[in-house]
Amino acid sequence: ELNGPWGVAVSNNGNRIIVTENLGQCITILDREGKKVKSLGGKGGSGNVKLSFPRGLAITPDNFILVSDDHRIQKISMDGYFVASVGENGSESLQFKAPRSMAISPITGQVYIADRDNHRIQVLNPDLTFSHSF
């Protein structure tokens, strides 16, 4: 059973369903039939991921997980290892106040993040550097 599912995405090959569990403070990876493969973060999760309030997520073209967590965006490998993190609480570039959903452009690879309490969309380059906002 999922504990507060918030975001959902599908791996690039379609074999894995990735779900953020806000109340469980983890990411759960399921097979196509919904059977749990592993949890990342949370209690008893595999890898070295620490999550506070995971919500939105997207899968990069090279099959990494991007997740909005607290006031940051974390990049995590499918096997559960922390790769990178950007952002902190604030209203400047690469600062977030309650980031929620995100999407990745299939053409440019840029990441579009709904920065809820800053009332804007922040756009990051594929390497998670700031591009622009609107």
Automatic annotation (TrEMBL):
Gene3D superfamilies: TolB, C-terminal domain. CDD domains: NHL. PANTHER family: E3 UBIQUITIN-PROTEIN LIGASE NHLRC1-RELATED, PROTEIN WECH. One of its GO terms (biological process) is proteasome-mediated ubiquitin-dependent protein catabolic process. It comes from Amphimedon queenslandica. This is SMP-30/Gluconolactonase/LRE-like region domain-containing protein. Pfam families: NHL (PF01436). The keyword Transcription regulation does not apply. One of its GO terms (molecular function) is ubiquitin protein ligase activity. Keywords: Repeat. The keyword Manganese does not apply.
